[in-house]
Amino acid sequence: MFQATATDQLVGYGLVAFSLVLFAYYTIWIIALPFIESEHPIHTFFLPREYSVIIPVVAGLLLLLFVGESRLYTLRLCISQMLEKELS
């Protein structure tokens, strides 16, 4: 079985911590801020609410584009390897 090195564990902990912070920020932004008065100083730490929809949509589209392009690249690579085997 593969043992994770200290660097792997550190990167994993960093990604988990980043995800938790991002989740907490987004949750406060979407769920808690509508109930806090707009003059409250906490609103200066958050983007306008329109971005709460735009940012996840753009991130999802970029993820789909990346996954689709990587699948096409893999397909092209497999086809070229099959053609090389047929020709040789």
UniProtKB/TrEMBL annotation:
Keywords: Endoplasmic reticulum, Membrane, Transmembrane, Transmembrane helix. It is a multi-pass membrane protein. The chain crosses the membrane at residues 12-31, 51-67. InterPro entries: DPM2. Pfam families: DPM2. Pathway: Protein modification; protein glycosylation. It is found in: Endoplasmic reticulum membrane. Regulatory subunit of the dolichol-phosphate mannose (DPM) synthase complex; essential for the ER localization. Regulates the biosynthesis of dolichol phosphate-mannose. Regulatory subunit of the dolichol-phosphate mannose (DPM) synthase complex; essential for the ER localization and stable expression of DPM1. Part of the glycosylphosphatidylinositol-N-acetylglucosaminyltransferase (GPI-GnT) complex that catalyzes the transfer of N-acetylglucosamine from UDP-N-acetylglucosamine to phosphatidylinositol and participates in the first step of GPI biosynthesis. May act by regulating the GPI-GNT complex. Component of the dolichol-phosphate mannose (DPM) synthase complex composed of DPM1, DPM2 and DPM3; in the complex interacts directly with DPM3. Component of the glycosylphosphatidylinositol-N-acetylglucosaminyltransferase (GPI-GnT) complex composed at least by PIGA, PIGC, PIGH, PIGP, PIGQ, PIGY and DPM2. Interacts with PIGA, PIGC and PIGQ. Belongs to the DPM2 family. This is Dolichol phosphate-mannose biosynthesis regulatory protein. It comes from Phrynosoma platyrhinos. The lineage of its organism: Eukaryota, Metazoa, Chordata, Craniata, Vertebrata.
